[in-house]
Amino acid sequence: MHDVVTIDYVHDKKAETAQIELTTIDKKGTVGIGITLVDDEKVTTDPKIKIDSEQIGGPSAGLMFSLEIYSRFQKDDLTKGYPIAGTGTIDPKGNVGRIGGINQKVVAADKSGAKFFFAPDDKVTDEMKKADPTIKSNYKEAVETAKDIDTDMKIIPVKTFQDAVSYLEKLQPKK
């Protein structure tokens, strides 16, 4: 390929320039430079919260991090004593987003003994179907994987953080 683009950017308040060779960035042959845009959100809390996330790569633990932080401020155990698992990105408005590798996450959650698994109930758009005709929503993939591995773990579709909280609040305590 060997096409090169020049990128101008600001880092530490200083203008920088870089030459980057275009590369294939996915299985469909899409060409790009491998940069992903993210929101630069700063969140301040009182009390301060420290999360050691060095063992976790990527944003797919956003929902579960959010639930854990929220549960720390609740009087009662939000999980009602059940092992809970799940996945999904989380945006500043509390929307749960699509992730990759949900099949493996369902299998790992089952092996770890989870009784409930929160799966992003994302919408598969026409554009996504055009790019990949076999694409399914994360929730549908999770349900199919749970069936394939013959687990009793319940797959719960969530579109928002509040969906997950509401589900947990309605659980009966584990006996």
Q: Helix amount, in percent? A: 25-40%
Low-confidence runs: none
Measured distance between first and last alpha carbons: 61 Å
Q: Give me the count of strands.
A: 9
Derived from helix and strand composition plus strand pairing, the structural class reads: alpha/beta
- Nearest-angstrom radius of gyration? 20 Å
> How would you characterize the largest beta sheet?
3 strands, parallel
Strand content: 15-25%
Count of separate structural domains: 2
What is the spatial order of strands in the main beta sheet? 5-8-9
Taken in chain order, the helices and strands follow as EEEEHEEEHEHHEH
Shape: globular
Q: How many H/I helical runs?
A: 5
How would you state the average pLDDT, rounded?
A: 88
Keywords: Hydrolase, Protease, Serine protease
GO molecular function, one term: ATP-dependent peptidase activity
Family: Belongs to the peptidase S16 family.
Protein name: endopeptidase La
Explained architecture:
The protein has five helices and nine strands; from the N terminus they run E-E-E-E-H-E-E-E-H-E-H-H-E-H. The protein is α/β, with parallel strands linked by helices and 175 residues long. It has two domains: 1-37; 62-170, no CATH class. A hairpin with a 6-residue loop joins strand 3 (23-24) and strand 4 (31-32). The chain starts with a strand and ends in a 5-residue tail after the last helix. Its EC number is 3.4.21.53. Residues 1-171 form the Lon proteolytic domain. It catalyses: Hydrolysis of proteins in presence of ATP. It comes from Listeria fleischmannii subsp. fleischmannii.
